[in-house]
Design brief:
With about 240 residues, the protein is α+β, with helices and mostly antiparallel strands. It folds into 2 domains: about 70 residues, no CATH class; about 160 residues, Kinesin motor domain (Kinesin), CATH 3.40.850. Helices cover about 20% and strands about 25% of the residues. The chain is built from 6 helices and 13 strands. The site of adenosine-5'-triphosphate (ATP) has 17 residues, from helix 4.
Length: about 240
């Protein structure tokens, strides 16, 4: 969700991030075909386009897409966090639910955006820092319980990344009509560092494509959706 007051009512925000070419892609002479036109518009160039081919002149398959927010490879982790997630913290500590997830083919930058590196921390770290700061600031009036679970959906199968030995888990509706992942591990946590340790542990468990995909990200792979749920509920 965007960090602007008028977007508070908006239920869903879709952001697109274009990652830089990897060294291997540059060595192969690859070029970027996705171009951010402004903060919402992205143009996908036709990779087969040949300006000298007069038979195909004016038949470009160039396509334009609109998003709530679009980032190119110059966007910093901080900018992405601010525009997509920071605005959710206030609702979260008031008892509202929020979900942030990254979606895309293998090697497109989901882990980089969500987890990041020590020098360039991603959305998880920045969210946890702000969340625990907000909890601290309101701790005179409120008490919170924070818990987390970490799961992976791969080929429509759900696995618990904090307890992968539990096998595939089912989705069930509880007595309140809410959809739950039956048997998922839920860890009560007390600070951002502990959550990060659990995230690192869970991340090691997620499936990688057998092709060593991170060196040469293929464009069409079975999408894997990684979901993290962290709840801070007024007691
Ligand atoms: N915005 C970015 N800036 C710099 N490097 C990036 C960016 N996005 C991705 N990368 C790099 O591209 C590579 C692939 O990214 P990443 O591992 O995040 O992909 P992924 O979508 O999580 O892949 P998988 O689904 O296989 O886990 C990594 O080496 C990562 O550091």
């Amino acid at each position: 969700m965007k960090d602007t007051s008028e977007s508070k009512d908006q239920q869903l925000t879709v952001a697109l991030r274009i990652r830089p070419l990897s060294d291997a892609e540059q060595e192969e002479g690859a070029s970027i075909v996705a171009h951010r036109v402004d903060d919402q518009m992205v143009v996908l160039m036709d990779p087969m386009e040949d300006p000298d081919d007069i038979l195909r002149a004016n038949r470009s398959r160039e396509k334009t897409y609109m998003f709530d927010v679009a980032f190119d490879f110059t966007a910093t982790q901080e900018e992405v966090y601010r525009a997509t997630t920071k605005g959710l913290i206030e609702g979260l500590i008031s008892g509202y639910n929020a979900t942030v997830f990254a979606y895309g083919p293998t090697g497109c930058g989901k882990t980089y955006t969500m987890l990041g590196t020590d020098k360039e921390p991603g959305i998880y770290v920045q969210t946890l820092n702000d969340l625990f700061r907000a909890i601290e600031e309101t701790s005179d009036d409120m008490q919170y319980s924070v818990s987390m679970s970490y799961l992976e959906i791969y080929n429509e199968m759900i696995r618990d990344l904090l307890n992968p030995s539990s096998g595939f888990l089912d989705l069930r509706e509880d007595s309140k009509g809410e959809i739950q992942v039956a048997g998922i591990t839920e860890v009560s946590t007390i600070n951002a560092r502990e959550i990060m340790e659990l995230l690192m542990k869970g991340n090691k468990q997620h499936r990688r494509e057998p092709t060593g995909a991170n060196q040469t990200p293929p464009l069409a792979k079975t999408p894997r959706l990684q979901v993290i749920a962290a709840a801070a509920e007024p007691l």
